[in-house]
Design goal:
It is built from three helices and ten strands; from the N terminus they run E-H-E-E-H-E-E-E-H-E-E-E-E. It has one domain: Cyclic phosphodiesterase (Cyclic Phosphodiesterase, Chain: A). The radius of gyration is 16 Å and the shape is globular. The strands form three sheets. The chain has a four-stranded antiparallel beta sheet with strand order 3-1-9-10, with helices on one face. Helix 2 runs antiparallel to helix 3. With 176 residues, it is α+β, with helices and mostly antiparallel strands. Bound molecules: adenosine-5'-triphosphate and magnesium ion. Adenosine-5'-triphosphate binds next to strand 1 and strand 3.
């Protein structure tokens, strides 16, 4: 029997190029022997679906389009280091309610439709450096504000050692 075609999918907040550029610049300086994320790959994962039947894409896009959410003002006011996965990340010391609500609604709709995703609780963060030994003392982190007016469905494609993300569709917030 032929195996169904799959795509590796996730939902994310996607920074504009200017914000990606700032984050990438800091990541490069902070990376040490770690691996700074490439500028164009920087994002905040909302729900990770992983390998998903491509035939489900129209349904997934439709349910994402039905999510009603307000624009998100996310202060990226801190950096951190997680030993268990050796990443350096940035994020908000207080998660805005607009973001929690978006994730809850999106995940609830995925669940209701029987679309599988990683059920680990959402911990909002942008991964900046992988394979890091720790958080460097320098450079200092300069807080940024991320104004997100949409979220995206993204496909993750690996070509040899390199992961490329393809924005499949963007879903705008309610007009604010
Ligand atoms: P690589 O796996 O090659 O290091 P990557 O992690 O950037 O690359 P993916 O594995 O496709 O690429 O992951 C896409 C996004 O989803 C990343 O933000 C990643 O951290 C996140 N992610 C991956 N696996 C999971 C998972 N099991 N649960 C939650 N988020 C995940
Ligand atoms: Mg991965």
């Amino acid at each position: 029997m032929e195996r169904a075609a799959t795509e590796r999918l996730f939902f994310a907040l996607w920074p504009d190029g200017a914000l990606q550029g700032r984050l990438a610049a800091w990541a490069k300086l902070a990376a040490g022997r770690g691996r700074a994320m490439r500028r164009e790959n920087l994002h905040l994962t909302l729900a990770f679906l992983g390998d998903t039947e491509a035939a489900l894409l129209p349904e997934i896009k439709a349910l994402a389009a039905s999510v009603q959410f307000d624009p998100i003002r996310l202060p990226l006011d801190r950096v951190g280091y997680w030993k268990h996965n050796r990443i350096i990340w940035c994020g908000a010391s207080e998660e805005p309610q607009t973001l929690s609500a978006l994730v809850a609604d999106l995940r609830a709709r995925l669940s209701a439709a029987g679309i599988r995703y990683d059920p680990k609780p959402f911990v909002s963060h942008v991964t900046l450096v992988r394979d890091a030994a720790g958080l460097p003392e320098a450079p200092a982190w300069a807080p940024l504000i991320w104004e997100a007016a949409d979220f995206a469905l993204v496909g993750s494609v690996r070509v040899e050692a390199r992961v490329t993300y393809q924005l499949l569709q963007r879903f705008p917030a309610k007009a604010g």
